[in-house]
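Q: Make up one entry.
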Amino acid sequence: MHTFDSQFITSHSVWRRLWRNLRLMLRIAKMTALYVIVGGRVRHKYRRSQASGSVYWLDDDPALKG
């Protein structure tokens, strides 16, 4: 099983630590971008349903079903 703990490298090489940090930074950037994109879609759908007076159910949104 791949866990967060397996990302830590026992070697103290500068290049390995930099590579690990770069990969972690890219992972965090990807997660942030996805949250912004999906969040924008959800906010747009919510505003549209609020303007029409209908109820917006997050459980039924296919964008959130990963």
